[in-house]
Amino acid sequence: MDVAIIGAGIAGIAAAYYLSRSTGIGSITLIDRGQPMAFTSAQSGENYRNWWPHPTMTAFTDLSIDLMEELARESDDRFSMTRRGYALATRRGDIDDLMHALTVGYSDSERDLIRVHDQPGSRCYRRPLSADWRAAPEGVDVLQDPALIGESFPGFAGDIRTVIHIRRAGDVDSQQLGQLMLERAREKNMVRLTGEVISVEADPQGFSIEVSAADGKQTVQADVLVNAAGPFVGRVGKMIGYDLPVKNVRQQKVAFDDRAKTILRDMPFSIDLDPLTLDWNREEAALLLADPRTAWLAQPMPGAIHCKAEGGERGTWVKLGWAFTSEPSAPGWTPELDDTFPEVVLRGAARLHPALKSYYGRFPRPMSHYGGYYTMTEENWPIIGRAGPDGSYVVGALSGFGTMAACAAGYLLAQSITGGLLPSYAASLGLDRLAIPQLMKTLRAAAHTSVL
Ligand SMILES: Cc1cc2nc3c(=O)[nH]c(=O)nc-3n(C[C@H](O)[C@H](O)[C@H](O)COP(=O)(O)OP(=O)(O)OC[C@H]3O[C@@H](n4cnc5c(N)ncnc54)[C@H](O)[C@@H]3O)c2cc1C
């Protein structure tokens, strides 16, 4: 069976890699209009975690992390996987809702993975002293003892009452991960074709995929077609003859050289969970409020502001992100950036990391401001599996978790195509879940806690 994959982002590459290791596959043609890993996958914050408010997504990302560990071991850690965890900070002491979400998220585990440290002198919390993924503990530590929070997270603001430290979490060099899988697939039966897919015809014999390449039009024939077109997954789906329930939401990041050393280099990836009103002085706030286009910047905003010491102890850069919008936009090849974003995210992040205030009004240089799209379903779960005519598959809607989930997504897709064994949750990661109203209701209600 010959396979064509549209899209050489991390999803298409992982699909090609796991298909190249499967039996029964003839050729694999990986088609992209540009270079591999150059579109959304080039914008990733490269973070991963196994923390989700639903056990299916926990199992799915755990599988992906298992597969990344396997690749890290086999390649002598070529893509620099680290594991200092995710530190979720809140000013709330009463966190019943967060504890409930943790309990539900890890409910499929046979072990008790949640450890609460709320008494003075707790000795069993293991600080993330090493970035080595092999050395990190499992599970979650919930810190509520003020002294322990202060010692363990000395850069955090003094008003933090709870830190939830997710331990199976860290980051990877995703370009290297993509490159590794590409090289290995190419050694087997994969070829690349550079060009834009402009039409697809499906008939009982298979698919004719018309590609506009630099040297003219080409037609690729395939028995199986995988749509891994990232933000364009909906557009490519229409060419094949199906609609997907996805939207694209623009997201931005900013990274800068932290010359004033405001962020400790061994800090885990941090997320400030609490909603906030940005820290403007009275005149600044009045000016913003006077203009209807900027008034929202002086009004209450959602939480979930990210801060990361990029490159850990070896680096000097800091990366900030804040997925504060959920408004859909039409995807473009050059995502628009909002000029105010750097100062806005700096002020948002400074609430948890007060040392960042030294950069107010004089954003550090050099800096890099960039962005891309979260391509997502309403419930923020991926779409992996059959869609449209026989032989047609999709791997998409990977939202803000495509880097961490790519290996599992590619593996599960390859198993579906080749008729291999699948975990029981696999069906609910595809379009089949839309036919399960109770599941959809639960997922839509919980979706806001997973947009990270
Ligand atoms: C700012 C930002 C931060 C993020 N941070 C993280 C993070 O920390 N951790 C994490 O796990 N995830 C993160 N993500 C999400 C992750 O980057 C994405 O989910 C993932 O990269 C999506 O991969 P993809 O292969 O589906 O899409 P893409 O990388 O966009 O690949 C799709 C490819 O399809 C090609 N294509 C589309 N249409 C056609 C066509 N007609 N013909 C030919 N080629 C076509 C495109 O050129 C593109 O190369 C982040 C995303 C953004 C935007």
Write the layout of secondary structure elements.
Blueprint: E1 3-6, H1 10-20, E2 28-32, E3 47-49, H2 55-74, E4 86-90, H3 96-105, E5 114-117, E6 140-143, H4 146-152, E7 162-166, E8 169-171, H5 174-187, E9 190-194, E10 196-203, E11 206-213, E12 216-222, E13 224-227, H6 233-240, E14 247-257, E15 269-272, H7 282-290, E16 305-310, E17 317-322, H8 341-349, E18 367-376, E19 383-386, E20 392-396, H9 402-418, H10 437-446
Parallel strand pairs: 1-2, 1-13, 2-9, 4-15, 5-6, 13-20
Antiparallel strand pairs: 3-8, 4-7, 6-7, 10-11, 11-12, 14-17, 14-18, 15-16, 16-17, 19-20
The site of flavin-adenine dinucleotide (FAD) has 43 residues, from helix 1, strand 2, strand 3, strand 10 and strand 14.
Write a structural description.
By secondary structure, this protein is of the alpha/beta class. The protein has 10 helices and 20 strands. Helix 1 links the parallel strand 1 (3-6) and strand 2 (28-32). It binds flavin-adenine dinucleotide (FAD). The site of flavin-adenine dinucleotide has 43 residues, from helix 1, strand 2, strand 3, strand 10 and strand 14.
